[in-house]
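Researcher: Here's my situation. A collaborator sent me these components and asked whether they could plausibly form a single complex. I don't have experimental data yet, so a predicted model of the whole assembly would be a useful starting point for our discussion.
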Amino acid sequence: MAGITTHVLDNETGNPGAGMKIDFSVMEDGEFRHVKTVHTNAEGRTDGMILQPEETKIGEYELLFHVDEYYRAKGVDLPDPPFIEKVPVRFSVFDTEQHYHVPMLCTPWTCTTYRGS
Amino acid sequence: MEKPDINRRSVLKGIGVGATGLAVLQAASGQEPLASRAHAAEHASGGKLTLHAIDTYYGQTRAGLQIDLSMQDEEGTYKLVKTVETVERGRTEAPLLEPGELNNGRFELLLHFDDYYQRLEAPLPTPPFLAKVPIRFGVFDAAENFHVPILFNPWNYSYYRGS
């Protein structure tokens, strides 16, 4: 499977990060163009792929994770401004035959991303 | 995407804490700094901003990772404050912002992983999975130290509030 997918894991509680807002953008002519906004489901994944294999091109992409809103909705008392707020993850697709799974592991004080599978 | 009212509020709060950070911004934009030396001294007991970039691919960070420090202005745009390079083992020669220079607000560290690994001739695809990576974080109490460790390799990175 090719294309782009993500998965949010809440490392504060050890649960999937459900209901997190994610903005997906594509680099075009030196600027990121917003493509769509999605929310994670109960498993911390998105209902559909972020980008289908046939739509995926070589180039740079951005996933913007709204970590602050996620924790505020859970009643977590964040400082102003929060240490971790809206987290942009920028990555490149270099081979459209490959799958790019880009998870976000977060707490209000740390975040991690990687190329998963 | 950012809420302008929040930005404005935190910028005003920043001015309340100390104008030296603004001076740094103005210095970067070529304007005359507002803050006097006396003002800087008054806040010398404030926090500083430091980082530690740890290369988990080579196991030890080589010198010369370029990092651009920016701070968000009241319009929500990240404005360049300074560009630094890491020295051997991944720290910077001096704190990114010294006590008195740090203000509350939103910051970005742009790490040039692409140039760094290219120079070290790491076997990576073109374009590399991670090229120029923004690390964003908020400073909510400039009286405290903010230490931001970043663990990275060509396929993954992680950062947190260190101590």
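Model: Some features of this prediction you could bring to your collaborator: The longest strand of chain A covers residues 31-39. The two ends of chain A are 10 Å apart (CA to CA).
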